[in-house]
Design a protein that fits this description.
Elements (H helix, E strand, L loop, with lengths): L1 H29 L15 H23 L5 E7 H13 L5 E8 L4 E7 L6 E12 L2 E11 L6 H19 L4 E9 L2 E8 L4
Antiparallel strand pairs: 1-7, 2-3, 3-4, 4-5, 6-7
Helix pairs in contact: 2-3
Length: 200
């Protein structure tokens, strides 16, 4: 009988420890990530959101014209922090993103992202710092740091986030007939330079 009682007590202690670990995990999950302390607020306006749309539309028109003319034309697209954040705020207001809040900064060679995901029980506060490199003429996202609240995360968690980001980028850029030749992040701007591919 003492063996059974010992097993039951051990199971009870394990259950208490699991509950404590879950409570601690939820608490850390709900806290703001350390990356937020490095984020800088960005002014957003309707004009900046429209400017973002206009620049993308102009770039798309130029790419299509170059492909139609079978020209290898070099084109550059420059977007500012204000334009990107204004567009994101517009998309949030229209319910196009599963987020409650987001902020992007363009530093000297890196980007910083802070986002609050609209989760069922507790909103997930995340942050990431990374770079954009070029691989085979396509942009590749490299995540140097990733936070989910203040939870201690493994290297594999950062790698999975990086992999997911690159899958999204690949899907979004798959049918654009360009080779990316340069990506620069500086002075609160993102500059992407591409060369159009010859049409079939």
């Amino acid at each position: 009988m003492r063996v059974i009682k010992g097993i039951i007590m051990a199971i009870g202690v394990i259950g208490i420890l699991v509950m404590l670990a879950l409570a601690t995990g939820l608490y850390l999950y709900s806290l703001s990530p350390s990356i937020l302390g490095r984020a800088v607020p960005v002014a957003v306006t309707a004009d900046a959101a429209q400017s973002f749309d206009d620049k993308l539309e102009s770039a798309d028109t130029q790419i299509k014209a170059a492909v139609a003319a079978r020209e290898n034309r070099e084109l550059s697209l420059v977007v500012t922090e204000s334009e990107v954040n204004s567009k994101l705020v517009q998309m949030l207001a229209e319910g196009q993103l599963p987020l409650k809040q987001t902020l992007i900064n363009f530093g000297d060679g890196y980007f910083l992202i802070y986002a609050v995901l609209d989760a069922p029980v507790i909103d997930a506060k995340t942050g990431a710092i990374g770079r954009i490199e070029i691989a085979d003429g396509k942009p590749k996202v490299v995540i140097d740091e990733f936070n989910l609240g203040k939870l201690p995360l493994t290297e594999s968690a950062r790698a999975r986030v990086e992999q997911l980001a690159n899958i999204i980028v690949s899907l979004e850029t798959a049918d654009i007939p360009v080779n990316v030749t340069s990506v620069q992040i500086q002075d609160q701007q993102l500059t992407i330079t591409v060369t159009t591919e010859l049409g079939d």
